[in-house]
Design brief:
This protein is mainly alpha-helical. It has one domain. About 40% of the residues lie in helices and about 10% in strands. It contains three helices and two strands. A two-stranded parallel ribbon has the order 1-2. It is globular and about 40 Å long.
């Protein structure tokens, strides 16, 4: 399992809630057996998405809510940095997991 959370998520406290969930995997030896990973990305907001690399994030408006991207926490720069971490992280994790 790959669990990615954002430290400045303004929709829900993703890091504080994800850390105990991952701790349960560790306690059950699932994390060791299956090479699970957990990352809490500093400064990132709820809208991190590696498919957005290279697109301007500062003016994004959520089509569902009409809220500006900044309502989800993070900054354009920190979300972009998180996206650049998450993309390769997912790729590497899936490569390992699907071998």
């Amino acid at each position: 399992m790959l669990l990615v959370a954002a430290a400045d998520d303004q929709l829900w406290p993703s890091c504080p809630l994800s850390a105990p969930a991952f701790a349960h995997l560790v306690d059950a030896d699932h994390a060791t057996t299956w090479s699970d990973e957990y990352r809490c990305l500093p400064g990132a907001g709820h809208s991190i998405n590696p498919s957005r690399i290279g697109f301007p994030l500062a003016d994004l408006i959520d089509r569902g809510t009409g809220l500006p991207r900044t309502a989800y926490g993070g900054t354009a720069e920190l979300d972009d940095a998180a996206n650049r971490v998450v993309g390769p992280l997912v790729s590497e994790f899936l490569t390992r997991a699907l071998q």
